[in-house]
Amino acid sequence: MFPNRAAVEGVADQMQLADVKGRSLWADARTRFFRNRAAVISLVMLGCIAAFTLFGGLIAQFEGDYVDFSLIGSNAYLGVPSIENGHFFGTDSNGRDLFARTVQGTGISLMVGIVGALVAVTVGTLYGATAGYYGGRIDGIMMRIVDVLMSIPFMFVLILMLVIFGRSIFMLFLGIGLISWLDMARIARGQTLTIKNKEFVEVAVAIGVRPSKIILRHIVPNLLGIVIVYATLLVPNMIIFESFISFLGLGVQEPSTSLGALINEGSRTMQFGYYWQIAYPLFFFVVTIFAFFFVGDGLRDALDPKDR
Amino acid sequence: MLSFIVRRLAVAIPTLLILVVLSFVLMYAAPGGPFNSERPLPPEVLANIEAKYGLDQPFWKQIVNYVVSVVTQFDFGPSFQYKDRTVNDVIAQGFPVTLTYGFWSFVVAVTVGVSLGVAAAIKQNSWIDYFAVGISIGAQVLPNFVMAPILLLVFTLWLGWLPGGGWSGGQWQFLIMPVIALSTSYMASIARITRSSMLEVLNTNFIRTAQAKGLPMRRVIWRHAMKPTILPVLSYLGPAFVGMITGSVIIDVFFSTGGIGQFFVNSAFNRDYSVIMGITILVGTLTILFNLVVDVLYAWIDPKIRY
Residue B279: which of A156, A163, A263 has the nearest Cβ? Predict the structure, then answer.
């Protein structure tokens, strides 16, 4: 009547053998991400651009602020891009090596983008998670503040700040970070509202973990997926933002430069036929933004399968 | 509905006050005043000028005066840089221009964006779909300050069809490039949002019912699918409006159209505080009003929202 013991153990053994290794959320996401061809190509592109900004300075034959007096004033025929005289991307209208300046500008744009996104994401996540976790009146007040701040056109306030406190990269970071954490706070709060009713949070509350620790140790790690996606999509927006301000001449100051400033300079001289002065910065701008958008999209598809 | 509008206004007014106070505090904290030039004025003259502009009064009095004159008389005070003009003159000169091309950009972005998105969703995976998706991806990397030089390069320098800048009282030749440059990226976003929203709506049960009872496709789209489709688009219009009004600064500077953006940037370089503040407050008011309109529209279209 009972199946014999050996047979049962045999089945048990087989079940152990058949026990597949569990796939974590992250491993799953990685497979999904690498199946997305556009995202992978974009990731490689980003790698190339990062390498360009890191090591481009070694290839460049000139410093970014070195003025090549032998070329100045005769841009149209001497400043053109050429391998022979060492100006791979030509020179700008002041006779400076455009290759070196593009390297520097791309680097600064990338840095502003990444640091700005990091600041925004950190502040926004903590703020949103706190509001969502406490709920009730605290949540109400905190989110009203976000609503109020959101309806202020911050670009104008930021320009006002840049005018008043002087233009510097630090001011840019501060201003950009101040503006862009609002969306993240909303998203993080929405997610926190669902997470805080899960059992593991209940357990943590029951054994007396402090709220601040619950937020940092139990809620924020569960927000990580969406935070990463949002951060990746935020970087290109930050770069666009910074370029916008630099285009107006209010951002990064000479001799430093950024892609926006280079595009602006190029757009002033293209009427004389110096197309390369706008073409190279524009190319790097477009490729960088494209790559970030595609990687962000790929990450979203990979980490958030229901949102397609 | 009325109480909803009143309640939204009750939030909007403190927001505006915060904006005014914020910009005033920033301005007050600025090192150096508008009259600290390279050649210092005699102290008596400086004192006279400061008395004229009310700069010798204590901080709280200045801010109260400013807020009161802004609120009661829409008076933003005199420009510090152009001695014979008030901020209101500057705004009156620049604002109609900004309003004209801003209005057209908005119209173009919404109409072209929505129709492109709807067409792409109805004919999914056809050439028009790929065209729309292609445009909306491409336009993501073409913000106004990239679009403007490209347009100028193609239409003015290569083809010679359009004037490279200026305004000329708003003739259409001068309007085309600003409108295209300002609207492209928002048009693309609207097309993308409309497409995905429409695709989602077309898969719902009530659309299947409408088709099952034999309604022609056109009627299904217009009567049944359009309303829920437009909701996400509507909530994007707020940010789009802010983006466009910010982008108008680029347009003004690049095409020399003479809108408020040009004055804003000039004043930013000249430290003409009163003009900067006036424009910031004007833009903030517009934004807040616009968001209010969008919220009311949203509540009106979506019967699920109850206030």
Answer: A156
* Cα atoms in the 13 Å half-sphere on the side-chain side of B125: 0
Q: Which residues of B touch A147 (CB under 8 A)?
A: 11
- Contact assignment for B15 to A148 by CB distance below 8 Å: yes
Residue B148's CB: how many other CB atoms inside 10 A? Answer: 26
d(CA B34, CA A294): 47
Q: Is A197 on the interface with B (CB under 8 A)?
A: no
Q: Over range B288-305, report the average pLDDT.
A: 80
Contact yes or no for A159 and B264 at CB 8 A: yes
**What value does the mean pLDDT of chain B take?**
81
Q: Give the C-alpha separation, A139 to A155, whole Å.
A: 27
> Terminal CA-to-CA distance of chain A, rounded, Å?
53
Interface check for A162 against chain B (CB to CB < 8 A): the answer is yes
Give, as one character, the DSSP assignment of residue B227.
Answer: H
Confidence of residue B295 (pLDDT cuts 50, 70, 90): confident
CB-CB neighbours of B256 under 10 Å: 14
pTM, two decimals, is 0.79
Phi, psi of A19 (to 5 degrees): -65, 105
Task: Specify whether the CB–CB gap between B288 and A151 falls below 8 A.
Answer: yes
Tell whether A295 is within 8 A of chain B (Cβ).
Answer: no
Q: Which conformational region is residue A249 in: left (phi greater than 0), alpha (psi within -120 to 50 degrees), or beta?
A: left
CA distances from residue B97 to A125, A176, B179, B254, B256 in whole angstroms, order as listed? 41, 29, 12, 14, 11
> Could you tell me the two tokens for A183?
């969306």
Q: Is the pLDDT of residue A307 over 50?
A: no
| Beta-carbon contacts of residue A241 (< 8 Å; ≥ 6 apart) | A116, A176, A179, A180
- Name the A residues in 89-148 with CB < 8 Å from any B CB: 144, 147-148
A282 and chain B in contact, CB less than 8 A: yes
Which amino acid would we find at residue A240?
I
> Would you say the ipTM is above 0.85?
no
Query: What residues form DSSP beta bridges with A97?
Result: A91
**Phi, psi dihedrals of residue A134, rounded to the nearest 5°:** -70, -40
CA of B137 to nearest chain A CA: how many angstroms apart? 8
Q: Does residue B258 sit in helix, strand or coil?
A: coil
Separation between Cα atoms, residue B181 and residue B104, nearest integer Å = 12
Question: Would you call A250 helix, strand, or coil by DSSP?
Answer: coil
Mean pLDDT across A59-83:
66
Mean of the pLDDT values across residues A65-70? 68
- Read off the pLDDT of each residue in A213-237 and give the average, rounded to a whole number: 85
Q: What single DSSP character describes residue A65?
A: T
d(CA A177, CA A115): 9
